[in-house]
């Protein structure tokens, strides 16, 4: 071989088979990019990931998504199912404004904040789609003000389960709904009787009987023939039957007594039995009737708490209770401010009229009532200042009362609106599914919305990880060719 032919062989111009071919150089350069280099690049946290959400592109680092490997975006295998090799990006046909918060979840290390213009149910669907996890959903609901829903187990016995659903969950069946209506009617009748028996025509008759019984030997028929007592007895029979039925069928006796509503039920029926026992005890011997009557009046007052039994069947009362519970701090501040104002303006009113003989404020405690009525802007007018200085103090007291009440009231109203709309949204979201009998029975033993609708983690075939890696590897090789395999002039 001559030097010329050797040079031609080296440069590729010596023969037709050895002519310069860019394709050969491309193939050689692609072989130079080994699989180890590709794998190292894939594991590099600085790799940029392009995510296309309904036409809007987001770009982040792979290490940012890798912080949560159990999520859709954090798991390369699950993420690869949405990869577009032609555009070298991941495409999701989802809500674009919601994805800002989803991506911030990865960037912030786990902080999830719902955009103000995104409804709660829509954002919850996005969380479930991107598989952020049940714990994240629970934290998000708590941040939104939703109390973590506790699991509500059912009794194991079929009979107890039916009784428990009948008395505890009105939405479980038509019969349970009728039982709830009957319970509300009995409560209203009991409250009506409690109010009616205080009318003058009935009270005078009862007082005469009490005075007679205090001096004469009472008869058993003195209260057994009282129509109010008979109606009250019928109401108590229903309350007792309802309480005993729920107690015997409840899945947990400890949880039963820890429920505040059950405590209200017990308090609602106790005055009747205490009153009945004291009446029977007085008929047996020489008891102190005067003391017994005073105790009975106090016990009968407890019957007014039966009105709270309506909260078991009223969403409005439940919302009001939640509002008061959430506003305890504001209510405490309101009472504290009123206390300071009452002391301050009562003292000022007393010293402003201390020399006036016709004043109503003979002492500072005597001015407390006037200060409370004035600061709350009620103004009964039963006690008023008569001097110029007293009227000036009264004017300042009224202005201070308006300012004091106006400050915490908007917060309380805002809490009420929040709980009201939250309850309304939850009812609307469940209205489409609540008519199903199977759903009505099943929703009592599980967390109602989250665990029922949370998606399960997809199961991948053993080769799915390799397929995803191959797809991503091919894309990387194609992109790396321009930088590593450019043909050069010889």
TrEMBL record:
Which Gene Ontology terms cover its molecular function?
delayed rectifier potassium channel activity
Q: Does this UniProt record's set of keywords contain Membrane?
A: yes
Q: Name one GO biological process term.
A: protein homooligomerization
**Domain of life of the source:** Eukaryota
Keyword terms: Ion channel, Ion transport, Membrane, Phosphoprotein, Potassium, Potassium channel, Potassium transport, Transmembrane, Transmembrane helix, Transport, Voltage-gated channel
Extract the ranges annotated as region (Disordered). 1-24, 453-472
Q: Does the keyword Endoplasmic reticulum apply?
A: no
How this chain sits in the membrane, per its record, is: Multi-pass membrane protein
Q: Which SUPFAM superfamilies match?
A: POZ domain (SSF54695), Voltage-gated potassium channels (SSF81324)
Q: Which residues cross the membrane?
A: 175-194, 331-352, 393-413
Q: What is the lineage of its organism?
A: Eukaryota, Metazoa, Chordata, Craniata, Vertebrata
Where is each BTB domain found? Answer: 47-147
Coiled-coil spans in chain: none
Q: Per its record, how is this protein called by name?
A: Potassium voltage-gated channel subfamily A member 3-like
């Amino acid at each position: 071989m001559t030097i010329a032919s050797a040079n031609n062989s080296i440069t590729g111009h010596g023969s037709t088979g050895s002519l310069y071919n860019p394709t050969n150089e491309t193939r050689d350069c692609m072989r130079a990019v080994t699989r180890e280099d590709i794998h190292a690049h894939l594991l590099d946290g600085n790799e940029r990931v392009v995510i296309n959400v309904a036409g809007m592109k987001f770009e982040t680092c792979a290490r940012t998504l890798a912080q949560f490997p159990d999520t859709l975006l954090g798991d390369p295998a699950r993420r690869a199912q949405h990869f577009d090799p032609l555009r070298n990006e991941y495409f999701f046909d989802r809500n674009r404004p919601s994805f800002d918060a989803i991506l911030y979840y990865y960037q912030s290390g786990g902080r999830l904040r719902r955009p103000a213009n995104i409804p709660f149910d829509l954002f919850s669907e996005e969380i479930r789609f991107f598989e952020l996890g049940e714990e994240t959903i629970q934290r998000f609901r708590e941040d939104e003000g939703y109390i973590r829903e506790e699991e509500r187990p059912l009794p194991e016995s079929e009979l107890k389960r039916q009784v428990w659903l009948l008395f505890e969950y009105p939405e479980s069946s038509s019969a349970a709904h009728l039982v709830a209506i009957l319970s509300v009617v009995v409560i209203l009748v009991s409250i009506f009787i409690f109010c009616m028996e205080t009318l003058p025509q009935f009270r005078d008759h009862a007082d005469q009987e009490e005075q007679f019984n205090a001096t004469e030997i009472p008869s058993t028929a003195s209260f057994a023939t009282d129509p109010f007592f008979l109606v009250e007895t019928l109401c108590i029979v229903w309350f007792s039957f309802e309480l005993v039925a729920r107690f015997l069928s409840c899945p947990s006796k400890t949880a039963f007594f820890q429920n505040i509503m059950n405590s209200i039920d017990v308090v609602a029926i106790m005055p009747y039995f205490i009153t009945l026992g004291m009446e029977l005890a007085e008929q047996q011997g020489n008891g102190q009737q005067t003391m017994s009557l005073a105790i009975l009046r106090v016990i009968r007052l407890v019957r007014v708490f039966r009105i709270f039994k309506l909260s078991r069947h009223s969403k409005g009362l439940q919302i009001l209770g939640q509002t008061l519970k959430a506003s305890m701090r504001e209510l405490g501040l309101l009472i504290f401010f009123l206390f300071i104002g009452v002391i301050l303006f009562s003292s000022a009113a007393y010293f402003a009229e201390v020399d006036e003989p016709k004043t109503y404020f003979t002492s500072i405690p005597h001015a407390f009532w006037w200060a409370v009525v004035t600061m709350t802007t009620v103004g009964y007018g039963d006690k008023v200042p008569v001097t110029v200085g007293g009227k000036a103090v009264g004017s300042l007291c009224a202005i201070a009362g308006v300012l004091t009440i106006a400050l915490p009231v908007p917060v309380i109203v805002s809490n009420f609106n929040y709980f009201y709309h939250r309850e309304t949204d939850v009812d609307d979201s469940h209205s489409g599914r609540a008519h199903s009998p199977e759903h009505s029975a099943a929703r009592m033993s599980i967390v109602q919305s989250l665990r029922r609708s949370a998606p399960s983690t997809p199961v991948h075939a053993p080769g799915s990880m390799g397929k995803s890696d191959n797809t991503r590897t091919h894309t990387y090789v194609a992109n790396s060719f321009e930088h590593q395999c450019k043909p050069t002039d010889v």
